[in-house]
Design goal:
mainly alpha, Serine Threonine Protein Phosphatase 5, Tetratricopeptide repeat, 3-stranded antiparallel beta sheet, two-stranded antiparallel sheet, 35 helices, 7 strands, about 50% helix, about 5% strand, Nup98_C, Nuclear pore complex protein NUP96 C-terminal domain-containing protein
């Protein structure tokens, strides 16, 4: 075995170099053996066992890099101190391990390297022993395994090369990449932002002014921005002037704000009268709507003659979702009960639909006063006005048609006969000579509500196909399926599915369920402040409500789009009320993101409801977002109490308290006595929340003392204490109002505040020192004695020790260098304390460790005189 302490770039070396290297290694090893006596026994034993020049035993095999062959016995080397290594001739080698420093001092670098390895090998051996005790690591396949050491070396540094995952064969699977969880992002408040306090960093304009150029939202939905508002694809007409800030009130409702406010107040007043507000487990008020708050209670708010969209919405909800008394005996089978329930629901939907389309039918008849009798009868039948249709048929002399209409809805034989009659007309080509209105009447009576095929033909015999619901709005087209298209025993789900397939496959011949404002002829989309895509056609909220009842897989979030209720995409009024009724009261459907977050919404929320189900199953972020959106809409209209009531429905305690406090803070200017009584009385808000908002507003208006009193009323003693120290105490000190200074901080004696002993208590100690020093001086002058009694002497000693300590910490209490009042107050307090203490204890200030930098010129001169007088007295006493 050949010991190699280094490796060269060339593998071919001469035998003379090998022999000389062996001699050098023997000499270095002999020098190292002299130090073995000074090594610990364990290290000496390990050195003897692992020494590369010792003779191996016969029991241990010898490792060799050479080809297998007859083993050569290594000669035994005798260590003689008298034997020296032959002089070494320097050679130019390209070995990077050679030490230039050794070459400079005249020492053979090869020899020095061998000596270093021989002397400092103990740590490497310990590492080798530890590695031998570990289990063998899993073999890794490296992409650089086939490269030579010379070409495969990382010349730029170890660890800089990315390890690639590779497999040796197709039978070996590549190990999957380690799982790395997604990084969680959280919103950082402005107070905790990294850019806070860097407004003056003019070197980095982005850091200093980055938040100044963003779009910001102000109170009441006010948008604060620079320049003109424009979309990403539009071209602005004016440049953004950084010196002009614009305030734009973004409209959140359609129509007049006063009318929208009245409608919102009407619904929320009824909601509040039926809801119970109580504190949850965290002490935060929470509005819990009762189970009795259903669609019928809201529908009762509208008179029976009201045909508005809002009234029809609640009446449709009453027909589809409100509890229904089937008036059946208890032992009735489940199938029969379900069948009766489906028929009753369909009957309720039929009654609502007939009332909802009456205005459309009447308007259609008024617009065509001279229309033929066929069109008039068909218009009446599309509104399910069968009696009036029979009267028109008899008045026009069509007694047979009146007889057929009077038999509606008839049975299957009745419908088959009518369809057979239509088929005979088509086959014989007679349909081309029959009035179109008559054909449409026969068609719907026969159950054909989509398309009536014509016989075709040309010329006078031409009879085209007729789209039955052509010219009708979606509610009347849906009514054709309810009253004529489907059998009497069909359910609401069957009728809805038939109509949905019809209008989706009719390619425009059937009216799609557009919202009420888009069906209105007076609606002009160009005048709307909201720009909507031309291909966007939101469904009507009435249609979505029917879909929610008919389709169990329909999500609640899919039917509560604001554009389905109003022309404004930010009007969440009716959407929020529908969510409360459907989810929180009737438990019909809920948001898909509701999860069990372990949130307690009230004192008795853990108990089961009337039907044995828990009150709230978890937390829904979509529900909280909906409440916040509606509250912002009410806040913009100035309805602060109503907005607060909506925020009381937020399910998370922390989010509910935060949202209400932020609302009060933005609306603090409107919190008069009447509104305060309403918030604290009806909505049961803590008075401390209201006072906190008023305190922030008073501080913003410059009323510091009013903010201080409001913070105390809100039990926010830390804020009041900080305000008293920074703003009120300096003024009281400068005015020398000790009574005011005492009253400011006496409020905190019974309430723990942060840093009380080194902030607020300092001013009370200052008042006490100023008062007692004056009283003790008057007492000594009155008693006409220079030696007080024991009690006064003890108090004077305490004051002599406490006043210098008080003076030394004053700069740390009033430490704002930008406020000149702090510096003036520190100077005044220092001067007053030193002057009054000097009157009763002239040498106390001189003997105290107060630095002269804290004293003014007069006090310094007085201190010099006092020190001179003290030295004079000591000199007299010594003499």
């Amino acid at each position: 075995m050949r010991f190699r302490a280094y490796s060269t770039d060339s593998e071919a070396e001469s035998s003379d170099d090998d022999a000389r290297r062996v001699d050098e290694e023997v000499g270095s090893a002999s020098d190292a053996s002299d130090d073995d006596g000074r090594r610990p026994p364990a290290i000496r034993a390990r050195r003897r066992e692992d020494s590369p020049i010792s003779e191996p035993s016969e029991s241990e095999p010898e490792e060799s890099d050479e080809e297998p062959g007859p083993r050569r016995r290594r000669p035994v080397v005798q260590f003689d101190p008298a034997i020296k290594s032959p002089p070494h001739t320097q050679r130019a080698l390209a070995d990077p391990t050679l030490i230039p420093w050794a070459r400079e001092i005249g020492v053979d670098p090869q020899k020095m390297h061998v000596m270093q390895v021989a002397l400092f090998r103990a740590p490497e051996e310990e590492a080798a022993l530890k590695a031998a005790s570990r289990p063998p690591p899993r073999r890794k396949v490296s992409i650089f395994a086939g490269l030579s050491q010379k070409r495969g070396r990382d010349s730029e540094g170890e660890g800089l090369r990315t390890e690639l995952r590779q497999r040796a064969s197709f039978a070996q699977d590549i190990a999957p990449a380690p799982y790395r969880p997604t990084r969680k992002y959280a919103r950082v408040e402005s107070s905790a932002s990294a850019v806070i306090g860097t407004e003056g960093a003019f070197v980095d304009a982005g850091l200093a002014f980055g938040r100044s150029f963003r779009v910001g939202w102000g109170p009441g939905g006010t948008l604060v921005h620079l320049g003109a508002l424009c979309s990403p694809r539009s071209t602005p007409t004016q440049s953004a002037n950084t010196s002009i800030v614009y305030r734009t009130a973004v409209p959140l409702v359609a129509g007049l704000p006063a009318e929208a406010g009245e409608r919102a107040t009407k619904l929320l007043t009824h909601h509040l009268s039926s809801s119970r507000i109580e504190a949850d487990a965290d002490g935060v008020p929470f509005a819990n709507p009762p189970r009795g708050l259903n669609f019928a209670s809201f529908a009762a708010l509208f008179p029976s003659t009201d045909r508005s969209f809002e009234a029809g919405l609640f009446r449709l909800g009453r027909a589809l979702f409100d509890p229904m008394d089937l008036r059946l005996a208890d032992p009735v089978e489940v199938d029969i009960r379900n069948r009766v329930y489906a028929l009753r629901r369909k009957a309720a939907l039929t009654s609502w639909l007939q009332t909802a389309v009456t205005a459309s039918v009447d308007a259609d008849l008024r617009e065509r006063p001279g229309a033929d009798w066929g069109a008039t009868i068909f218009a009446l039948l599309s509104g399910n006005q069968v009696a009036k249709a029979c009267e028109i048929a008899m008045d026009s002399g069509n007694l047979k048609l009146a007889t057929l209409i009077s038999q509606y809805p008839g049975d299957d034989v009745y419908r088959d006969d009518l369809r057979t009659q239509l088929s005979e007309w088509r086959k014989s080509g007679v349909d081309a000579h029959i009035n179109e209105g008559t054909r449409r009447i026969y068609s719907i009576l026969g159950g054909i509500v989509d398309t009536l095929e014509g016989s075709g033909g040309t010329g006078l015999a031409h009879c085209p196909n007729i789209s039955i619901p052509k010219g009708l709005n979606w509610k009347r087209a849906f009514g054709l399926h309810v009253w004529f298209g489907e059998p009497l025993e069909s359910t609401v789900a069957d009728v809805f599915q038939a109509y949905e397939q019809h209008w989706k496959s009719a390619s425009g011949s059937v009216a799609s369920p557009l919202p009420w404002y888009m069906e209105d002829s007076t609606y002009n989309a160009a005048l709307s402040p909201w720009v909507r895509a031309t291909t966007a056609e939101p469904p009507d909220a009435l249609y979505s409500l029917i879909r929610l009842f008919a389709d169990p897989a329909c999500s609640l979030s899919a039917v509560l789009a604001p554009v389905s209720f109003s022309a404004s995409p930010t009007d969440y009024r009716l959407a929020w009320h529908l969510y409360i009724i459907l989810s929180r009261c009737l438990r019909v459907r809920d948001f898909a993101d509701r999860g069990n977050a372990g949130i307690t919404l009230g004192e008795d929320m853990s108990e089961a409801g009337e039907d044995g189900e828990p009150a709230v199953e978890g937390h829904s972020p979509s529900a909280d977002l909906l409440a916040n959106s509606y509250a912002l809409q009410l806040e913009q209209q100035g309805l602060i109490q109503e907005a607060t009531f909506v925020l009381l429905h937020i399910e998370g305690s922390a989010g509910r308290a935060k949202a209400i406090k932020e609302l009060l803070g933005r609306s603090a200017a409107l919190l008069d006595d009447w509104m305060t009584r309403g918030l604290a009385g009806s909505l049961k808000l803590p008075l401390s929340w209201i006072n906190e908002a008023k305190a922030m507003y008073a501080l913003d208006c410059g009323d510091v003392y009013g903010a201080y009193e409001l913070y105390l009323s809100a039990s926010m003693y830390n804020a009041a204490h900080d305000l008293a120290v920074r703003e009120l105490a300096p003024d009281a000190v400068i005015r020398d109002d000790l009574e005011l200074l005492k009253n400011l901080f006496e409020q905190f004696r019974d309430h723990p505040v942060d840093d009380w002993h080194v902030r607020g208590k300092v001013f009370l100690e200052y008042v006490h020192a100023m008062t007692r020093l004056e009283e003790l001086r008057d007492y000594l002058e009155e008693m006409n004695t220079a030696v007080p009694d024991a009690a006064e002497a003890a108090e004077l000693d305490n004051l002599a020790r406490s006043v210098p300590r008080l003076i030394s910490i004053l700069p740390d209490v009033l430490h704002d260098p930008s406020d000149v009042r702090h510096q003036a107050a520190v100077s005044e307090m220092t001067a007053h304390l030193t002057t009054r203490l000097d009157r009763v204890r002239p040498l106390a200030i001189h003997q105290s460790p107060i630095p002269n930098t804290m004293l003014n010129d007069g006090l310094r001169i007085h201190n010099i005189r006092t020190s001179a007088y003290e030295r004079f007295l000591k000199t007299v006493e010594a003499a």
